[in-house]
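Hey all, quick one. A colleague (J.T.) asked me to put the heme C job into the tracker so the inputs and the structure tokens live in one place instead of scattered across chat threads. No bug as far as I know, just bookkeeping. Sequence used:
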Amino acid sequence: MRFMLAAIAALALAACGQSAPSGSTETPNTTNESSSAPAAPSADDAQSQAAVAALPAPYNAANYQAGRTVFAQCRSCHTITNGGANMVGPNLHGVIDRPIASLQNFNYSPPVHGAHFNWDPEHLDQWISNPQAMLPGTRMGFAGVRDATQRRDVIAYIMVESTR
Ligand code: HEC
């Protein structure tokens, strides 16, 4: 019986490992952080989830890891790190509050170049729902993220990552 209780306690600890303060966990799996399994929680992820929790609603309810998974679709065309290269699409570091089409070293399409607003979560939500519907003729060849929860998660991910 004591053994059973100990096992249950261990399971409960494992289940909430991600949100537990880092000092109290005893996860041996802290080697080789991000390069191994992308979904494995790490100290960095706990920090990132805390950054998400500090965002304004509704983004404070987002799931950082789920957002990162959705962002994998963007990553084939975009970097988000500071100083990251332009690829098929422009670098997205600092994109929040950035005027649209403002990178000097990226060749935007005429409809994107001719638009005038700063990127905020609402514009991003509209954009990634369906870029062609928002700015017809854009060169961003991306069908869109249909699921509103996935959009919330990926926008929260962008809000955290683009300011790092
Ligand atoms: C197939 C490549 C591709 C994918 C996938 C893609 N994009 Fe883009 N993105 C582009 C291109 C190309 C542009 C420039 C569009 C233009 O000039 O018409 C762009 C532009 C943008 C811009 C405007 C940036 C600026 O400087 O004004 C944002 C924001 C953006 N993409 C976000 C995303 C997000 C978020 C995702 C994933 C949900 C994504 N993109 C997926 C190719 C892509």
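Adding what we noticed when we looked at it: The chain has one domain: 44-161. The chain is about 40% helix and 0% strand.
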